[in-house]
Design goal:
Blueprint: H1 19-24, E1 29-34, H2 41-55, E2 58-61, E3 69-73, E4 84-87, E5 105-107, H3 114-129, H4 132-140, E6 159-163, H5 167-178, E7 182-186, H6 201-207, E8 210-213, H7 227-230, E9 237-240, H8 249-257, E10 262-265, E11 282-284, H9 296-310
């Protein structure tokens, strides 16, 4: 047993001023649930180990009928005692909120994936602007060919419009600034002080040389980028490292078939089954933006937020109304 004393959390345990109540919550159990076939037992064991070390709580692999907290990948299953659920994933669009009682707080792991995903954004951008994919394929086929100078685009001085200015959007802005890019952004929920220019989506699309989609997928953002928004874009490329469904499928395909602009994306509709011909003006990767040689950092970040919860100050609490 790992003691997990909660002495600072009156918001979630309002009666904790009494010694009797402290004893009732002295031992907190965390259920570590990995409900996806992609990840093996070693990942589950590592998550348990990290969670025990950071929180000091007892952890159990899989569902537990007396778990106070659930750390999860995939669809989580709470117990009757569960009061808090922490996602390891950045998004929670895969969660069926109708199965989660309203009294349970759910937190995303949004900021934890900012570094690898942001680096992937820059990799997609540079692969496009420097024609790296094309040159690599041609050279492997014995073709030594250079395009005209204007085919190679310099990022310096170009405008990057960011749809969704959360952890990933802000981190990409920092990297893009290092390349000398101008940043404009749109965020649905608030206006951060560090946005040099805040624009509404229509204007952002008109003004941007490149547009990054880093919105979370929920009922408000599904099909957010549609025919109307796409018609405003006259830049070089749109980048998507959010979720495929933020973009209307048929509208994007029509746009690509009638435009010289590119779609640089780490996601695709109905992945991993892709039953259509991908347009030539698409550079795509198989949802690897969050993968890295330091994946443990994402587990650590999630477990630290469980500790934040125990201390009464959890971050990234999900607004249920966005998903129901």
């Amino acid at each position: 047993m790992f003691s997990c004393f909660n002495h600072k959390n009156p918001k979630y345990f309002p009666a904790s001023k009494t010694f009797k109540t402290i004893i009732n919550y002295a031992i907190m159990k965390i259920s570590v649930q990995v409900n996806t076939p992609i990840l093996g037992n070693s990942i589950k064991e590592k998550m348990n180990e990290i969670c025990r070390k950071i929180t000091g709580c007892e952890t159990v692999s899989g569902y537990s009928d007396d778990a106070d907290i659930v750390l999860f990948i995939g669809q989580p299953k709470p117990s009757k005692k569960t009061v808090f659920m922490q996602s390891v994933s950045a998004g929670v669009n895969h969660v069926d909120f109708s199965l989660i009682p309203e009294n349970i707080k759910i937190a995303s792991n949004a900021d934890a994936w900012s570094v690898p995903v942001s680096e992937h954004v820059m990799a997609l951008l540079l692969a496009f602007t420097r024609k790296i994919c094309q040159s690599n394929t041609e050279l492997h086929n014995g073709i030594y060919k250079r395009l005209d100078d204007k085919s190679y685009i310099v990022l310096n001085g170009k405008t990057l419009g960011i749809l969704g200015y959360g952890g990933i959007g802000r981190h990409v802005a920092g990297l893009a600034n290092a390349f000398g890019m101008k940043i404009i952004a749109y965020t649905r929920t608030y206006k951060p002080d560090d946005i040099s220019e805040f624009k509404m989506p229509d204007e952002l699309m008109k003004l941007s040389d490149f547009v990054l989609i880093s919105l979370p997928l929920n009922k408000y953002t599904r099909n957010f980028v549609d025919k109307s928004l796409l018609s405003k874009f006259n830049g070089y490329a749109i980048i998507n490292v959010g979720r495929a469904e933020i973009v209307n499928h048929s509208d994007m395909i029509d746009f690509l078939n009638n435009s010289s602009a590119y779609y640089l994306t780490d996601v695709w509709w109905d992945e991993p089954k892709i039953n259509e011909k991908i347009p030539d003006n698409v550079i795509i990767t198989p949802h690897i933006g969050g993968m890295s040689d330091n994946i443990e950092q994402q587990f650590i970040y999630a477990c630290k937020n469980i500790k934040n919860f125990l201390n009464g100050s959890p971050k990234n609490i999900v607004r249920r109304d966005d998903y129901i």
